[in-house]
Amino acid sequence: MEDTGRHLDFVLKHYRKGALDTRRAIRRFNAATSSRAGRRNPAQSPSGQDAGRRKVRTLWLSVISSAAAVAAGVIVYMNTGSRAWTENATAGAVQVCILPDSTSVTLAPGSSVCYRKGRAFLRHRKVKLEGMAFFRVTKDTAHPFVVSSENAYVKVLGTEFQVEEIPGSGNTTCTEVSVRSGKVFFSRTPESKGLVLVRDMSASLGPGETIPVLTNHAPNPEAWATGVFDYEDTPLDVVLDELSGYYGVTLTLEKGKPDRHLTGSFDAGDLDETIFLIEDALDVEISKGQE
Asked: Where is the composition biased (Polar residues) (predicted)?
């Protein structure tokens, strides 16, 4: 048994892809054993010679088969690994992607998400993101959900949040995370220090920064994905600022009290209708100009 282990170690050590031809090895072995049999002591009984040949042949076939099995296992693993990843990417429109655990990912135009298929995803629940996406994560306490981007790491259990990569000067990138519900851990890498964000909290991680920094949280940073502006006792100037950025216009208070607060939900559709509803609810007048 010890000799068998030495033979197997030798074969595995010197194995190279494409160099192991079992049929050729068996033919060469048969020729060699036949030649050696003719040179052996004639006094040796034929039955003893046959038994010796069968023993040696069995040993080498076992070694060759074991090495081939190991090589085949490596090849299958590598090929399976390359096929196990899938990617969803967007061009000029918002796209919704449903992951194997029923998590919903809404991708902004020009963004992509990469993840493993089937059971491989369910065991680890990891995705790679480029661009911007809004996540509605299915809760699974045994398997945290992880989003990684070029310079950021986000880990959650079940929540709604947004991750956005913002290109900077050169090849730098700033990553922003905004939480709509639940709890999110945000850091640069899995091993580095980070921040725990809860509902209505945002943070950014810029080039050269090791820990995310809290930022002012806009009421509806994910309105592009949800299609809804939802306000709860929100100052009017904050509402107008958010709507101005979303629609690419400049909204200013023309008439009325500036300290008014707004509570209500509006579809992210027709801006003029939204302005009318706000004016009617708060008894104000809003002017609209181009940025």
From this structure: 31-48
Q: What are 108-128's pLDDT values in tens digits?
A: 999 999 999 888 899 999 999
| Averaged pLDDT for residues 201-221 | 94
Residue 249 has pLDDT above 90, yes or no: yes
User: What whole-number distance in Å separates Cα of residue 291 and Cα of residue 279?
Assistant: 21
Number of residues that this document lists for the chain: 291
The count of other CB atoms within 10 Å of the CB of residue 231 is 19
End-to-end CA separation in angstroms for the chain: 82
- Using the structure block, give the residue that is written with the tokens 């009421």: 219
- From the list 181, 246, 175, 249, the residue with the least C-alpha distance to 205 is 175
SS3 118: helix
Q: Which amino acid is at 135?
A: F
The continuous run of DSSP H or E covering 273 comes out as: helix 271-282
Two structure tokens written together for 93 = 């429109």
The two structure tokens encoding residue 157:
């259990």
**Residues pairing with 235 in the sheet:** 261
**Two structure tokens written together for 258:** 């500036």
- The number of C-alpha atoms within 13 Å of 188 and in the hemisphere containing its C-beta is 14
Q: Is 259 exposed, middle or buried (0-12, 13-18, 19+ CB in 10 A)?
A: exposed
Q: What is the per-residue pLDDT across 23-64, written as a single tens digit (0 to 9) for each? A: 555 555 455 555 554 544 444 444 555 555 554 454 444 444
State the residue for tokens 């945000």: 186
pTM comes to 0.68
- In whole angstroms, give the CA distance from residue 71 to residue 69: 5
Residue recorded with tokens 């709604």: 160
Nearest to 94 by CA among 230, 229, 248, 224: 224
CA distance linking residue 152 with residue 174, whole number of Å = 9
Q: Rounded to an integer, what distance in angstroms lies between the CA atom of residue 152 and that of residue 145?
A: 14
